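Appendix C: a fully annotated inverse folding record. The material below is reproduced so that readers can follow the format used throughout the book. The structure is listed first as tokens, followed by the designed sequence.
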């Protein structure tokens, strides 16, 4: 049973954002994705990086060529952009237009559903109502005996192909953990609940469920019966039911994306808006210094960091983990490893992907990569580093930017966490 759980998390998580689950649901030949031991074949995850070939076949050269020949229109690397404030204002405006974020109203009214002490931390389980879906839930953690105002951290959970879970992926609030979360934290976080760990350093940490995850997930009762694949919402905590839901949600992710596009918005736009509501809640707390706010996360949490850190000036320090490459990498090699949640039509013509995070220059920014991360090519991870370095150098703020590469695969391990937390301490304390 233990080995089965370990295999499941490896297969559903290594392609991080759920696309493997769709491939598997379509009865993809297992020999293409696993080796003789039943573990993921890294050559498949690393994928299709032969010269002259791409994930979209002969169309790759043409599609990749659309991004070549000149810099994106709002790239700060363009020599015609000399005034950083004018550039940032225009670049943020066009980025927000491409994201088409919906209006979700003002600051939500927060309800404290539970309050207790665990692991030396004061923990609040909170909820709030948005115009869409059920009540959003989040967890707030801080040192139990803290007094006065503390710096705050927006801690973004990962995707991992698991939409049944959200905030629980990076927190621990009791000795009892869901068995799937035990496996998840062991695989990606070296068995650490990183939101707890950073809170212990003297921060108020906000961990909200993201759009379509956990409390924000699509409930099966609200979906036409013929699309449920025989599933329902009964006993959702049972591992077999949670796994079935995760598989169903991954398979139908394109349906949500197409519906959002048809409604005139985008998935990253909804992420940004909902994360901003959570940030509103954090900044309005009496125990938080609103001028000292950071954010960070792994994988899907890294993607949310890119958009939130780039577009909301309240984020004074950002740490993006396991989600940095170029649009070209996605065009030619890696779109199949990534969620529909990443994309906003028309944005690549305005900014390369790392430049979205670079909109925050000269504010402190850290990017942490893993050398064997199969979600990206190493070449384009290094290219993204070069792009952000150039942006920060032009802004005369290179001391505010740091990028590091670590051995191993897709992860946010103890060493990486320590470096990230030191970065927060340096700029927020």
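Designed amino acids, in order:
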């Amino acid at each position: 049973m233990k080995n089965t759980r370990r295999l499941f998390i490896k297969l559903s998580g290594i392609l991080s954002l759920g696309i493997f689950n769709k491939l598997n649901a379509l009865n993809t030949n297992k020999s293409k994705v696993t080796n003789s031991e039943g573990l993921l074949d890294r050559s498949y995850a690393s994928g299709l990086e032969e010269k002259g070939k791409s994930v979209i076949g002969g169309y790759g050269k043409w599609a990749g060529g659309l991004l070549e020949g000149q810099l994106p229109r709002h790239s700060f690397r363009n020599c015609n952009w000399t005034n950083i404030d004018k550039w940032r204002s225009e670049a943020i405006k066009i980025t927000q237009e491409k994201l088409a974020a919906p209006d979700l109203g003002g600051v939500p009214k927060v309800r404290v559903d539970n309050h207790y002490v665990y692991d030396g931390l004061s923990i609040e389980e909170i909820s709030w109502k948005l115009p869409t879906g059920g009540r959003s839930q989040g967890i707030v953690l801080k040192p139990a005996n803290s007094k006065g105002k503390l710096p705050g951290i927006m801690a973004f959970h990962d995707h991992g192909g698991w939409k049944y879970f959200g905030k629980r992926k990076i927190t621990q609030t009791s000795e009892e953990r869901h068995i799937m979360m035990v496996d998840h934290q062991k695989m990606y976080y070296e068995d650490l609940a990183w939101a707890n760990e950073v809170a212990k350093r003297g921060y108020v940490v906000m961990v909200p469920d993201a759009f379509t995850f956990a409390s924000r997930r699509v409930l099966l009762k609200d979906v036409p019966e013929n699309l449920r694949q025989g599933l329902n919402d009964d006993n959702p905590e049972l591992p077999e039911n949670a796994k079935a839901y995760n598989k169903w949600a991954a398979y139908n992710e394109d349906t949500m994306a197409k519906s959002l596009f048809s409604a005139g918005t985008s998935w990253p736009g909804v992420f940004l808006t909902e994360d901003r509501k959570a940030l509103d809640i954090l900044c309005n707390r009496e125990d938080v210094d609103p001028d000292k706010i950071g954010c960070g996360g792994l994988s899907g949490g890294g993607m949310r960091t890119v958009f939130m850190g780039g577009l909301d000036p309240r984020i004074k320090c950002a740490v993006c983990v396991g989600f940095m490459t170029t649009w070209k990498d996605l065009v030619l090699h890696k779109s199949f490893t990534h969620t529909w949640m990443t994309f906003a039509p028309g944005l690549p013509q305005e900014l390369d992907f790392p430049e979205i995070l670079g909109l925050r220059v000269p504010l402190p920014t850290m990017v942490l990569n893993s050398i064997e991360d199969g979600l990206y090519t190493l070449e384009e991870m290094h290219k993204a580093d070069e792009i952000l370095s150039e942006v920060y150098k032009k802004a005369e703020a290179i001391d505010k930017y740091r990028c590091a590469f670590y051995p191993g695969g897709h992860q946010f391990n103890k060493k990486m966490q320590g470096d990230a937390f030191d970065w927060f301490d340096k700029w927020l304390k």
